[in-house]
UniProtKB/TrEMBL annotation:
Domain Histidine kinase: 1-143
Protein name: histidine kinase
Domain of life: Bacteria
Whole-protein residues included: 478 to 623 of 623
Protein family according to the UniProt entry: In the N-terminal section; belongs to the phytochrome family.
Amino acid sequence: IPHVVEPFEQLIYDQQQILEIDIPRQLPPLASDPFSLKRILTELLNNACKYTPAKGKITVSVRINSDKIQLSVSNSGIEIPRHEMQRIFDKFYRIPSNDPWKHGGTGLGLALVDKLVSYLGGSIQVESGSRHTTFLVELPIMSDGK
Ligand code: ATP
């Protein structure tokens, strides 16, 4: 996981955002497809970098909770209105008013995340308020031999 975060560090620094990483030293081996996991985190971080203002904060945290890994990517910044929370996972859907910096995008990032999370047998939740947005992904930790 730290390797996935690393490429974003320079961008975050350049955009004057603050990065906080909270990942346990010892992570259990994840039998789930590491490429999918990497892609999920990359897409969520990509969004956090895009939708956080300068001086804003991005937090990546990982928690192990019995048989699940909880991955959360949180950022300060723009609120995702409640009525948009399902639609942001649709292919090509973007909230135009949520992009004051005009980064643009394909609207595919979260659709991909959604598909990969279900492929891995997990779930994703989004929580957003006037000052922050958090994406929480829960994935099963498969035991050896599965
Ligand atoms: P791309 O995937 O090509 O980067 P995108 O960011 O527009 O494009 P998605 O990642 O699918 O596409 O996100 C869909 C929409 O959800 C975004 O256009 C944005 O409006 C909203 N969104 C996603 N992440 C955040 C976030 N962290 N904070 C605020 N809005 C967000």
